[in-house]
Amino acid sequence: MVKGIHHISLKCHGGEELAAVKGLYGDILGLSVKREWKDGIMFDAGNCLIEVFTNGEGVKTTGAVQHFAFAVDDVDGMIEKVRSAGYEVFKGPKDICIPSEPPLPARMAFFYGALGEEIELFCEK
């Protein structure tokens, strides 16, 4: 039985990329480091971990995962921190309503992370 998501894993070449990852996930988004080892680091995202392997040699490829989303209290405030740190915001922030039953009103924005990953900031209304 699945109990939840344990972690999301990202590939990093180390060095400057790792410094950018630590700056984004730690300083800008405010995630604490759960554990660190020779070839990796795990950030605590509340209900799952963001695992970054620093031995990611070779070409990065995109698989079936389109993006991952962080639940936040203030999309606009967080996206402003991300934008002022130089990250590309490619959608939003904007209000949406997912036409589900029941409808899900929310505010959202998307940006590219330190490794080119697509990250969504999402706040249910």
UniProtKB/TrEMBL annotation:
Molecular functions (GO terms): lyase activity
InterPro entries referenced in this protein's UniProt entry, alphabetically: Glyas_Bleomycin-R_OHBP_Dase, Glyas_Fos-R_dOase_dom, VOC_core
Keywords: Lyase
Keyword Secreted: no
PROSITE patterns referenced in this protein's UniProt entry, alphabetically: VOC (PS51819)
Pfam family, one: Glyoxalase
Domain VOC, first and last residues per copy: 4-124
Protein's recorded name: Lactoylglutathione lyase
Provenance organism: Ruminococcus albus SY3
